[in-house]
Amino acid sequence: MRFTMGMEPVIAWVVVRRYDQLDAEGREEVSNTPPMIIPLKPNSNFNELKIQIRDWLGLAENGNEIIKLRRSDEALITLSCLLGGSSEEKPYFLDIARIHQNSPASPRLAMSPTYIETVRSKLNNLEKRVERVESLVPEFRSQRLANIDRTLQQLGSKVNFLDKRLDELVPLEWKAHFHQSPTSP
What we know:
Layout: E1 10-18, E2 31-32, E3 36-40, H1 46-57, E4 65-70, E5 76-77, E6 92-98, H2 113-169, H3 172-179
Parallel strand pairs: 1-6
Antiparallel strand pairs: 1-2, 1-3, 4-5, 4-6
């Protein structure tokens, strides 16, 4: 890998795990390399990092392999974390897998009892709230019907009031026309 004068490469230690070779070569175990140094150009963007890693590993550019980077605690991280460098004691893990090929899950740490109790109490609280809402559903229907009745009564009284006001405000000449029945020819 060539670097421009004056730019020192970033040194990252990695352990390469080739999941892509499991079924293809009849292997049943993942091949792990010892920690190796990968020199990287500083200030590389994501695509440049992928190209540098593919070139370093001799992978084809056909895009059939997925490159995953993990910390020493197996947490998945972005490839740009390689630019921070690493040590031989705590190397990154570079997993190479085929598309849609899963890496085996690693066992997780047991959850603390306080966390479990907190989640349990939140679930119980949520369950009680749901039960309360379910018990109030019939009351909601009766409250809605009562509200509709009350609204209809208010509208009826307003219509009656407006009808009386119109009767009071209509000139007498008009009232004479309203009470006459139309003559039929």
